[in-house]
Each structure stands twice: as C-alpha cells, then as structure tokens.
Amino acid sequence: MKSRSARRALLCAAVVSAVALGGTAAGTAYVKARAHPGGRAVSSAVTPSASASASGEAAVEPVARPTVDRDARLAEAMAEVPVEDGAEVSVAVLDVDSGESASYGDGVFDTASIVKVDILAALLLQAQDAGRALTATEKSYASAMIERSDNDSASALWRTIGRAEGLDAANERFGLTGTEGGDGMLWGLTQTTAADQLALLRQVFGQDSELSAAARSYLQGLMGQIAVGQRWGVSAAGDGSAWALKNGWLPRTATGLWDINSVGRVTVDGRDVLVAVLSDGNATKEKGISLVEAAARAAVSGVSGEAASATASATVGQPVEAPQRAGADGPATADHVCLHRPDDLNHRIRNPQPARRGGRRGRP
Q1: Residue 264 to residue 272: CA distance in whole angstroms
Q2: Please, where are the H alpha helices in 148-276?
Q3: CA 142 to CA 124: how far, in whole Å?
Q4: Which DSSP symbol is given to 268?
Q5: What are the CA-CA distances from residue 246 to residues 10, 30, 234, 264, 287 (Å)?
Q6: CB 203 within 8 A of CB 210
Q7: What whole-number distance in Å separates Cα of residue 303 and Cα of residue 105?
Q8: Does 329 score more than 70 pLDDT?
Q9: pLDDT band at 305, cuts 50/70/90?
Q10: Residue 46 has pLDDT above 80, yes or no
Q11: Per-residue b or e along 143-180, where b marks 16 or more CB atoms closer than 10 Å to that residue's CB
Q12: Which of 5-14, 35-44, 280-289 has the lowest mean pLDDT?
C-alpha cells in the first residue's frame, strides 16, 4: 500500500509539472492539484520566459512597421533640384498602387495650358449631367486642344462650359479647393495649386470619380496622344513604357519669365504614378522644362523610395524654340514658338499681368 501511494504521488506531481509547463507567452499558467489525499496544495506560476525556455522556442513579439514621412523624403529630394533665383516650384504626387502620396510647396500658380484638361473634364461632366454625348464639333475641339494644345479650340470650349463660372462649378464637384478660373477669356491665367492638380488627375485616372468610365477613358486617350514636340515634362519621371500628360508654357508679358507646368500619369516598374509639377519665374523655357522634369523625378523617388536622379537633364521631346522677331521689345509674344504651336499666349496678352489672387507666395 505504501509503495502504491508513493507511485500515485509521483504520477500526480508529473501531471502538475506538465500542465504548469504548458503555459504560453500570452500569460502565466496557475494550477492546483493534490499529490495525495490529505496532502497540501501544489501551485505553479510560469512566466513567459520560463515557458519559452521550457518549450525550446523563443517568444516572438510583433514588430511595428516604421512609418515613412513621404513629404520629408520629397523635400530632401527636392533639395537636390537646382532652382534658379526667382523661380519657384511646387509638386504633388500619388503612387496609385500603394496609395502613398507626397507634396512639396503650397503656392498658387498660373495654369497656362494644363487648364485644358480641366476644361475638357468640365465639358464631359456637363454633357454627362445632360445625358448627352459630345458633338462632333466638341470632339474636334477637344482633340486639338489636348493633343496639339490648340488655343482657339480651348477658347471655343471655354465659352461652351460657361467660362470661369462653369469651370469653378465643375471643380467644386471634383474636389478642387484652391483653383479659380481666369477672368473673361483669360483661361490660361486660371490660378491653381499642385495639390488641386493632383486631385484633378485622380478624377481623370481614378475609379472614385465624378466622371463616368467612358469619359475618363476618352480624356486619358487624348492625353496619351500628345504631339511629338510636347512630350516633355512628367514623362521624364517614368520608365518610358506608358504615359499620359498635358503641359503648359507661358511667357509672362510683364517680366518675360516663363510659367512651365506639367501634369499626368507615368508608369514606373509597372506602377502607375500621378504627378503634378507647377513652376514660374523661369528665365527661359528650356530652364523651366529642366526644372519641371527634375522635380517630377524627385516626386517619384519621394513616393517610391527609389534612388531616382532628380537632377538629370531634360531628355524627352524637348520643344524647339524659334528666336524672337527682330525689333520686338519687352513682352514675349507669339514669336516664341515650339515645334507645333506657340501655346499659352492666351490671345497674345500685351498688358502687364493682373495681381495674383491670394498674394505672392514664398518659396516652399
């Protein structure tokens, strides 16, 4: 009997030990058992480290993913972009696949001809609301306005949408909060921000849009058939496999300095990236193009983390500029031409530029 009681006590003790060692890293195990009738209670509290040691496996704690400040990364990349004295630049970018976005600068700029995307988007929205398709004439104007940056076509459609009032109404629905249509027929002097241009690109290329899928596809198609001499700009930030863009270039009559802008979608290693770059105060058109393309590369690196070369020179379809006509003085005129059209003179404005809405901005 005494031998049987001893064996029973040893068996109970072994069970208690096994249960105690079954504790996990989620907490401690606490058990009570009696070794034999009349014996005292046995308790075991096992800590996570003890449990891990007993099982031979190390406890694994979840590791938080480090957050990346994309705006700060873009600012660092932009610090390497050469900007001439007096020029200013602002950038906004979105990696469509990852949802990562970044922006640099919050100034207000003249749109020049990038507003033509907005004009056509407003027209498509109005036609959509009216339950009608674009007329043959409207389509003719639209293709000329986007693909060749034809100014007369832009003026015709500007009237059709109701000028600034129609543009502003559409932009309110598109989610643009810092854009204001130009006075009268001065559509090229519409004021905007890089953030607003990115919002417009999301309406054109995104699924969550006020525009129908058919309207988006139509506008995307035109932006993918830009005339050869006008394919510079944000396209320099892509891998060359696919792009859709619209550029704007405008010499200001009061100063002779250039507004150079570029907006669109590029593809980088199979990922779609939306990029908007605005600039003004450029001494020449070529310098402005170089600035915009370098900023676009920096923007892509800011959301992708790739070591894009922000300071590389412009390489894609840079337009050819003819010399100014002899005897011309002061304001730049339509004698400054690109390979296809003079673009963005906005009916050859010869008066000093109006005061900028919202005041002059400081450098970001």
Answers
A1: 10
A2: 151-161, 163-174, 194-205, 213-223
A3: 10
A4: E
A5: 85, 70, 9, 6, 18
A6: yes
A7: 16
A8: no
A9: low
A10: no
A11: bbbbbbbbbebbbbbbebbebbebbbbbbeebebebbb
A12: 35-44
What is the phi/psi pair of residue 52, to 5°?
-60, -40
C-beta of residue 155 within 8 angstroms of C-beta of residue 347: yes
Classify residue 187 by its DSSP letter: G
344: pLDDT strictly greater than 50: no
pTM for this entry: 0.70
Q: What is the pLDDT of residue 144?
A: 98
The band of 118, judged by pLDDT with boundaries at 50, 70 and 90, is very high
The first and second tokens of residue 161, run together, are 């949408």
Task: For residue 360, give every residue at least 6 positions away whose Cβ sits within 8 Å of its Cβ, in sequence order, or none.
Answer: none
pLDDT in tens, 150-166: 999 999 999 999 999 99
Distance, in Å, from the CA atom of 46 to the CA atom of 103, rounded to the nearest integer, reads: 52
- Tell me the angle at which helices 115-130 and 163-174 cross, rounded to the nearest 10 degrees: 80
Say how far apart CA 328 and CA 331 lie, in whole Å.
8
pLDDT score at 68: 79
Please give the Cα distance from 125 to 123 (Å, whole number). Answer: 5
Residue 75 neighbours by CB under 8 Å, 6+ apart: 104
Question: Collapsing DSSP states into helix, strand and coil, what is residue 48?
Answer: helix
Q: Hey, is 309 helix, strand or coil?
A: coil
CA distances (Å), origin 12, targets 16, 54, 151:
6, 19, 94
What does residue 60 show for φ and ψ, rounded to 5 degrees? -110, 120
* Residue 26 DSSP symbol: T
pLDDT of residue 304: 74
Determine what percent of the chain is predicted with pLDDT higher than 90.
63
**SS3 sequence, 226-256?**
CCHHHCCCHHHHCCCCCEEEEEEEEECCCCC
CA distance 241 to 235: 10
**pLDDT value at 66 more than 80:** no
What gap in Å lies between CA 102 and CA 93, rounded to an integer? 5
Q: What is the mean pLDDT of residues 102-125?
A: 98
The structure tokens listed for 28 are 């401690």
> What gap in Å lies between CA 272 and CA 269, rounded to an integer?
9
